UniProtKB/TrEMBL annotation:
This is Nucleotide exchange factor SIL1. It comes from the Eukaryota. One of its GO terms (cellular component) is endoplasmic reticulum lumen. Its main location: endoplasmic reticulum. PANTHER family: NUCLEOTIDE EXCHANGE FACTOR SIL1, PROTEIN FOLDING REGULATOR. Residues 9-65 form a coiled coil. Required for protein translocation and folding in the endoplasmic reticulum (ER). Functions as a nucleotide exchange factor for the ER lumenal chaperone HSPA5. The gene is LOC102032406.
Length: 340
């Protein structure tokens, strides 16, 4: 290779000028290409401003959206599918406590309570679904719903020939209405609610509802017990007096639930057994004589104890000392101990 002469004196001034001009042109072209690339990636600020303005114009409040959905549901021009779609969307909004209160003030609650009477199973199902969502932990809506006759309508759905999906949503709405609302619990008992729930155990195809009923009864019994054991303020005293009017356990014992509930321990799912064991554990104090005289229950509990001893041991070998199966085993042992 020949030696490259880097001495500036070897270039004429004209050549240097041309070289500099070429460098500037090259830089200019590169900068232009970069700007073009940036322009392709990002829109101009004017365009962005315009788009944001359009977007802001389109943003609707939850209140406005619910008003449109209620209107769609209530319109005689809407098809069945459109009404169901409106209810489906409303369920999402009324979960929020403030939205549920707005839903009430707009007349939406009255409409879904009326929807429980629909001859269309899908409207009945989704009306119950929206009702249940609006009732969840919302005392104001609970009071309005019971005054609007929702409790009777839900019990009618559960007591009559209806598709499982409809009854499932009706039971969800009933559970939402009864929880933490002693007045509703009292009315439920007066209207024969326990008999209605018991009838679900005599019908084929209603098995998926059994564990939901057991969970509801357990929650309602525990709700009252925990309140009676809590610190008593003036407000709490009033609530305790309300709960004293709710004779739920008495109704459960009188109507044969002592015999009915343990039968569900034959179910194979651990989750179902767990919920049934919780209720049996609470009922032991009130059903003790019945349980002691039930040889089938004694056999079932012994078999379950053997099964869960093995599962708990396996759990422990895997390093889980306070595992799920150990907890279930504890529940079984407690019940066996109570019945000795």
């Amino acid at each position: 290779l020949g030696k490259v002469d880097l001495d500036a004196n070897s270039f004429t001034s004209e050549e240097l000028k041309q070289a500099l001009a070429k460098m500037k042109e090259s830089e200019k072209a590169e900068r232009k290409a970069r700007e073009e690339e940036v322009r392709k990636k990002f829109r101009p600020i004017e365009q962005l401003k315009e788009e944001f303005e359009k977007l802001n114009m389109k943003i609707e409040t939850d209140y406005e959206i619910m008003a449109k959905l209620i209107s769609k549901f209530n319109s005689s021009a809407s098809t069945l599918d459109e009404k169901v779609a409106a209810l489906y969307d409303l369920e999402y909004y009324v979960h929020q406590v403030d939205n549920a209160k707005d839903f009430l003030s707009m007349g939406g609650l009255r409409l879904v309570i009326e929807g429980l009477n629909s001859s269309e199973a899908s409207l009945k199902e989704h009306s119950a679904f929206v009702l249940g969502a609006a009732l969840s932990s919302n005392p104001k809506v609970q009071i309005e719903a019971i005054e609007g006759g929702a409790l009777q309508k839900l019990l009618v759905i559960l007591a009559t020939e209806q598709p499982l999906a409809v009854r499932k949503k009706a039971l969800f709405a009933l559970s939402s209405m009864l929880r933490h609302f002693p007045y509703a619990q009292q009315q439920f008992l007066k209207l024969g609610g326990l008999q209605v729930l018991r009838s679900l155990f005599r019908q084929k195809g209603m098995e998926p509802l059994h564990v939901r009923v057991v969970t509801l009864l357990y929650d309602l019994i525990m709700e009252k017990m925990l309140l009676e054991d809590s610190q008593h303020g003036e407000q709490m005293e009033e609530k305790i007096q309300q709960y004293q009017q709710v004779r739920l356990v008495l109704g459960v014992v009188e109507q044969g639930w002592c015999a009915l509930v343990p039968n569900l321990l034959a179910m194979p799912e651990h989750d179902t057994r767990e919920k049934v064991l919780k209720l049996v554990g609470v009922l032991v104090a009130f059903c003790r004589e019945h349980y002691r005289g039930d040889p089938a229950l004694g056999t079932t509990l012994s078999l379950l104890r053997s099964e869960y001893e093995e599962l708990a041991a396996e759990e422990q070998r895997e390093g889980d000392k306070d595992g799920y199966f150990r907890e279930l085993l504890g529940s079984i042992n407690t019940i066996i101990q109570e019945l000795r």
